[in-house]
Amino acid sequence: MTDDFERMKVAFDTNVLMDCILNRPGRQIALRLLMAVSEEKIVGIVSANSITDIYYLSKKGIGDRAAREAILDLLSMFDVAPVDGEVCAMALNEPMSDYEDAVMAVCAAREGADYIVTGDQGFLSSPSPVQVRSPADMLRAIGETGGK
């Protein structure tokens, strides 16, 4: 990195990325967050298991070809956090009721993420080792305001 400052690292939960890909409610805010990653205002992180989930869910909604293109776009923009046996075991020890959220939280912590962004209300209120924010709160945190 050639910048004089360390960019904020943000781990993206699957649902935020799916809002963009499937044109779901919340798409505009999610797109602005993806633009922040694309413009290198923040470092975007996605877990490896989210990539496979995104493909599976996207294929059903937009077809195989478009789903593969979406994955290729994500892989070109985001750092991919590995999900291995150690991550899975560590997630079992997190005081979170949703195991999938715990896996994301452990991945984010291992990658040095400053925040996790999610639209999942349960995740937002869980005791995570990395601070969890809604997409709108995350936009405010990175200084992206106003409606375009």
How does this structure look, described?
α7 (121-124) links the parallel β4 (115-117) and β5 (131-133). A five-stranded parallel beta sheet has the order 3-2-1-4-5. The protein has a single domain, classed as 5'-nuclease (Rossmann fold, 3-Layer(aba) Sandwich). It has eight helices and five strands; from the N terminus they run βααβααβααβαβα. The relative contact order is 0.19. The chain has 148 residues and is of the alpha/beta class.
Features:
single chain; 148 residues; alpha/beta; Rossmann fold; 5-stranded parallel β-sheet; 8 helices; 54% helix; globular
CATH architecture annotation: 3-Layer(aba) Sandwich
How does the major sheet shape up? 5 strands, parallel
- Secondary structure class reads alpha/beta
Would you tell me which CATH topology applies?
Answer: Rossmann fold
Write the layout of secondary structure elements.
Elements: E1 8-12, H1 14-21, H2 27-38, E2 42-47, H3 48-62, H4 64-77, E3 79-81, H5 85-92, H6 99-110, E4 115-117, H7 121-124, E5 131-133, H8 135-141
Parallel strand pairs: 1-2, 1-4, 2-3, 4-5
Helix pairs in contact: 1-2, 1-3, 2-8, 3-4, 5-6
